[in-house]
């Protein structure tokens, strides 16, 4: 990660705690990066995420976590509902359009007077 390299370079000029606060990084994550203990997405996890996205898109973005887990099971792929849900959250956060309230049709309500 580039941000950790920047912190590593600037830590001689500025206090490490302050650098981490400004860049919104925890010191433990910095030390994990420095000691090469960071989490890296391996190819198996990436291919699983790609399969989840493929099933989601193939079914017109209508399938939820349970259906995708079942569909992957039918394909012979063992998938955790938690990983499927995480992949869905990642893709839908970037692809779903936001609907403006002003673009919705105005409803006509009939007022009854008693």
From TrEMBL:
Residues 50-86 form the HTH-like domain. InterPro entries: HTH-like_dom (IPR025948), Transposase_IS3/IS150/IS904 (IPR050900). It comes from the Bacteria. This is HTH-like domain-containing protein. It comes from Chitinophaga oryziterrae.
């Amino acid at each position: 990660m580039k941000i950790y390299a920047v912190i590593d370079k600037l830590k001689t000029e500025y206090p490490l705690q302050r650098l981490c606060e400004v860049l919104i990084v925890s010191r433990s994550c910095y030390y994990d990066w420095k000691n090469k203990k960071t989490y890296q997405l391996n190819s198996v996890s990436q291919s699983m995420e790609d399969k989840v996205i493929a099933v989601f898109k193939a079914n017109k973005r209508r399938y939820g976590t349970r259906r995708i887990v079942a569909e992957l099971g039918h394909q012979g792929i063992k998938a955790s509902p938690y990983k499927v849900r995480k992949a869905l959250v990642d893709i839908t956060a970037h692809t779903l359009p936001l609907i403006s309230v002003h673009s919705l049709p105005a409803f006509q309500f009939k007022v009854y007077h008693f």
